[in-house]
């Protein structure tokens, strides 16, 4: 599903990623572990080009997303991202946070179709064989209504319907992060990227967020998680990547990484954190 | 104080009987109009300048726009507003060969001038918004423009309303120089009343009072606006 080939990223003279090559298949849950500054987050952020790679390529379903011609916004719609600091839109209510992108993009696509149809009608006036119009299935109101229903359904799922009209500043960290997760889900992404989703949370709220991620994993969502929660990585991941110094040093099943690490750096790291 | 009573009487006489109040009302209207329209233009152009300046410099056009905006701000902050008015009215417009009423020239010049200051205020406002907000918008597939318009700028504006209010108050007071190009503001009105009988004490005193009231009203409006914008910060 995602092929990363010799991915490199440098800030000025310092190389943060020194040639990463790996393949992420549909349905895999990949945990990336490693010490701070090892390039885990940078690697994750390169996958939806939040960071611009300086070398190599990333193929998503066969298309190279590092190509300048790729519509990066289109790509990002298919890849949900969850941040360490939640990044809910502070000026929007919870419901608006979830609805904003689906409604905006839905309306934009509708506008594009309508413009194309106008052009076709114009051309049809001068043609004997009429070109077919693009079918328009939804009205503006329908798009909004569907986004709203979907947002409420997602909120019900995480038990926060009553917070629909609240602003993010009134919520706890755990609530914010769960809302950030369903906000990403509202776009129906094919892959979810989690960038240390529990690192900024109070210990008592880590559980509720991990539970939600675990549910998604059980439903078969493809996901890549940068995490310091070793127990969680071990339990949920189908594959663990250990990164250090901008390279993947070990790539194996969680059982083998956690019980029988081969690389000396992995051993050292795990002996410190476990 | 008997002398003052007499002065007050003479002012009243001109104010009512020689239609002084009409001049004052027109002046008041022009003063408020120049300040309000100037600020509106300033916010519009200033926001565009601020965005051009914080935009990531990924291509040459963005770099060029940035340079242009720096030059614009330097130009309008580097000269007094009176000089800008005079140059616009007596140099720029005749050179282009168009004839625009003084009042509209004032609105435009005050707008352009205020844009330079608002752009710096707005830029600091945009930079004060957590970069994570832009990242979150982009990660959802919204483009730079939409994320800026729907997420970043509304939050930036909320942060800078007090400073923008200050700019508005400055504008109200600075409009007192528009008579340099012949626009009729409060000063022109009270000067007319005073010149009628060479009695300037009362007219100028009342002019000062009107400015104080104007500024107080502006401050009140700004505070109300600030309060309503803080809605999303309040815990409830």
Q: From N to C, what is the helix and strand string of chain B?
A: HHHHHHHHH
Oligomer: heterodimer
Radius of gyration of chain B, in angstroms, nearest whole number:
22 Å
Distance between the termini of chain A: 32 Å
Number of strands of chain A: 10
What is the rounded Rg of chain A?
21 Å
What about the largest sheet of chain B?
Answer: none
Q: What percent of the residues of chain A sit in helical stretches (DSSP H or I)?
A: 40-55%
Give the number of DSSP strands of chain B.
0
User: What is the overall pLDDT average of chain A?
Assistant: 91
Output the number of helix runs of chain A: 9
Structural class of chain A: alpha/beta
Strand order of the largest sheet of chain A: 6-7-8-3-9-10
Characterise the protein shown here:
The complex is a heterodimer of chains A (274) and B (236). Chain A has 274 residues and is α/β, with parallel strands linked by helices. Chain A has nine helices and ten strands. Chain B is built from nine helices and no strands. Chain B is elongated and about 75 Å long. Chain B starts with a helix and ends in a 7-residue tail after the last helix. The model of chain B has no long low-confidence stretch (mean pLDDT 89). At the A-B interface, helix 2, helix 3 and helix 5 of A face helix 6 and helix 7 of B.
């Amino acid at each position: 599903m995602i092929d990363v080939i010799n991915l490199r990223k440098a800030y000025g003279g310092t190389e943060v990623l020194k040639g990463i090559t790996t393949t992420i298949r549909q349905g895999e849950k990949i945990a990336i572990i490693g010490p701070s500054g090892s390039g885990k987050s940078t690697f994750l952020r390169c996958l939806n080009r939040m960071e611009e790679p300086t070398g190599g390529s990333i193929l998503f379903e066969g298309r190279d997303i590092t190509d300048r011609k790729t519509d990066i916004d289109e790509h990002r719609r298919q890849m949900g991202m969850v941040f360490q600091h939640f990044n809910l839109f502070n000026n929007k209510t919870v419901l608006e946070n979830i609805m904003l992108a689906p409604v905006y993009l839905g309306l934009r696509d509708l506008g594009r179709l309508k413009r194309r149809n106008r052009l076709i009608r114009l051309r049809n006036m001068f043609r004997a064989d009429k070109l077919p119009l693009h079918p328009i299935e939804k009205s503006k109101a329908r798009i909004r209504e569907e986004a709203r229903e979907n947002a409420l359904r997602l909120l019900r799922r995480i038990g926060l319907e009553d917070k629909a009209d609240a602003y993010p500043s009134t919520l706890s960290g755990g609530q914010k992060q769960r809302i950030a997760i369903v906000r990403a889900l509202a776009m129906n992404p094919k892959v979810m990227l989690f960038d240390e989703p529990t690192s900024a949370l109070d210990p008592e709220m880590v559980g509720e967020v991990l539970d939600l991620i675990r549910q998604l994993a059980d439903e078969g969502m493809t996901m890549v998680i940068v995490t310091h929660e070793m127990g969680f990585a071990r339990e949920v991941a189908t594959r663990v990547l250990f990164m250090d110094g901008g390279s993947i040093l070990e790539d194996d099943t969680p059982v083998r990484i956690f019980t029988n690490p081969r690389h000396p750096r992995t051993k050292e790291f795990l002996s410190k954190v476990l | 104080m008997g002398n003052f009573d007499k002065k007050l009487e003479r002012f009243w006489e001109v104010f009512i009987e020689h239609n002084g109040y009409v001049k004052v009302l027109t002046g008041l209207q022009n003063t408020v109009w120049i300040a309000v329209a100037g600020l509106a233009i300033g916010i519009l152009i200033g926001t565009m300048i601020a965005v051009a300046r914080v935009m990531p410099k990924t291509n040459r056009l963005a770099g060029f726009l940035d340079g242009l905006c720096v030059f614009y701000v330097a130009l309008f902050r580097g000269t007094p507003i009176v000089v800008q008015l005079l140059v616009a009215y007596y140099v720029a417009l005749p050179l282009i060969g168009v004839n625009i009423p003084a009042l509209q020239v004032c609105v435009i010049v005050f707008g352009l001038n205020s844009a330079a200051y608002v752009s710096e205020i707005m830029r600091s406002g945009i930079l004060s918004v957590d970069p994570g907000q832009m990242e979150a918008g982009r990660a959802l597939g919204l483009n730079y423009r939409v994320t800026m318009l729907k997420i970043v700028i509304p939050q930036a504006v909320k942060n800078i309303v007090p400073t923008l209010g200050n700019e508005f108050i400055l504008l109200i007071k600075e409009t007192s120089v528009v008579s340099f190009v012949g626009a009729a503001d409060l000063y022109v009105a009270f000067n007319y009343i005073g010149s009628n009988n060479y009695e300037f004490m009362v007219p100028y005193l009342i002019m000062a009072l009107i400015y104080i009231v104007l500024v107080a009203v502006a401050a009140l409006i700004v505070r109300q606006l600030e309060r309503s914008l803080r809605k999303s910060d309040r815990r409830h």
